[in-house]
Design goal:
The protein is an alpha+beta fold and 362 residues long. It has helices at residues 85-91, 106-119, 149-158, 221-224, 255-263, 265-272, 311-331, 348-357, and strands at residues 36-44, 50-58, 67-78, 93-94, 98-102, 130-134, 176-177, 180-181, 183-193, 196-208, 241-249, 280-294, 335-336, 342-343. α2 packs across α3 and α6 (265-272) crosses α7 (311-331).
Length: 362
């Protein structure tokens, strides 16, 4: 008898593994030293139905405002928004915390990051913060604008370097992935390159994909757990949606190498079943804490890993992205939202049963 009330868990807690590289101690983006993550979750039924929130990522300590990290981004499919990326593409630096929220709240969260800097008396004449989004309007009344600047402040203030809450939290509260409940997920890998061990951590906000395309370690889980087994939130195949992925590493990378690393999130997305549908906003940003740039300094000294040493980091990025998406799925809970709409969680006992039949567990 399958148990629909099985507690939610991370992929590895279910006895399931993907990839080949070792994970970091927390198996999270916070395995990269200095990275902190915080959430503000907004759930209420009056005066409007809200299933939404904000997730904040600090790439480094409070000095990030003036001591930037190198960064680069990749747009796999562009039906989405990530503010500040034109400037990152121009100068290759990230000098603010970044946030992820819902589509209609990008503006208020972006402005809130600027206001937060003002509150903290940051000595910068102007800011172009990075805020990404995916759309949660199926479960949440997004057009009632439930996210406020206070929520963004709360997510930034809540950030910590420990274990990261996943599933229906922060910006991921109202998200849907492969026609199951989605949301926030994270994972990490440790790769050896240039004679040293480096960590690559990934955090995703997963809100994309068709049930039929979902795979776990190559197993066609979406077809095995079809709409006849677990109802979909839609009557037709839902290929659209979006995913934001933020990749962090302590490997010393220059901006073009960060951009190359960000591209490899596409591989992990593909392994799970993402295809970059026309209506999907698939945007990936990578930053390196291995290079810090004092914005006021006339000259900065940078290091870079040799191009031929990048391949292990590419593998780490792909594997961590894959598992981060799967952790979002296994952590998220069945959610009822606007107009009584229900999005069901991926049933973990059924997942384990399918994986056993394909001999991918244990």
């Amino acid at each position: 008898m399958l148990n629909p009330n099985l507690p939610r868990a991370r992929l590895r807690d279910l006895g399931l593994r993907t990839g080949q590289l070792p994970r970091g101690p927390l198996n999270a983006i916070t395995d990269v030293a200095g990275v902190r993550v915080g959430h503000a979750t907004v759930v209420h039924d009056a005066p409007s139905v809200a299933r939404t929130g904000v997730t904040a990522i600090w790439p480094a300590g409070a000095d990030i405002w003036t001591n930037a990290v190198t960064a680069g981004f990749h747009g796999f499919n562009g039906n989405g928004e990530m503010t500040g990326t034109i400037w990152i593409d121009e100068q290759g630096l990230l000098g603010t915390p970044l946030c992820i929220t819902n589509t209609h709240s990008v503006g208020v969260v972006r402005d809130a990051v600027v206001a937060y800097a003002v509150r903290e008396r940051v000595e910068r004449p102007w800011l172009l913060p990075v805020v990404g989004e995916t759309y949660d309007g199926w479960l949440s009344e997004a057009d009632r604008f439930p996210v406020t600047a206070a929520h963004a402040f709360a997510a930034l203030d809540d950030a910590s370097s420990g274990a990261v809450a996943e599933g229906c939290v922060g910006g991921g509260t109202g998200m849907i992935c492969h026609e199951f409940k989605g949301g926030i997920g994270t994972a990490s890998r440790v790769a050896t390159a240039a004679g040293a061990a480096w960590t690559v951590g990934v955090l995703v906000q997963a809100n994309y994909g068709s049930r039929d395309l979902l795979r776990v370690d190559g197993v066609p889980v979406g077809r095995e757990i079809g709409r006849d087994v677990v109802p979909s939130h839609r009557d037709v195949t839902a290929l659209g949606g979006s995913i934001i992925a933020v990749l962090a590493t302590d490997a010393p990378l220059v901006p073009i190498q960060c951009k190359r690393l960000a591209r490899r999130a596409t591989v992990g997305l593909a392994w799970v079943g993402g295809i970059g549908a026309n209506s999907s906003g698939d945007i990936f940003l990578a930053f390196s804490t291995g290079n810090r740039v004092q914005l006021a300094a006339p000259v900065s000294q940078l290091q870079m890993i040799a191009p031929d040493e990048m391949t292990p980091l590419f593998q780490a990025a792909a594997e961590a992205t894959e598992e981060a998406i799967l952790n979002a799925l296994t952590a998220a809970e069945t959610t009822v939202g606007r107009a009584g709409r229900t999005v069901h969680a991926l049933p973990l006992d059924r997942l384990q049963e399918v994986m056993r039949r394909y001999r991918r567990s244990g």
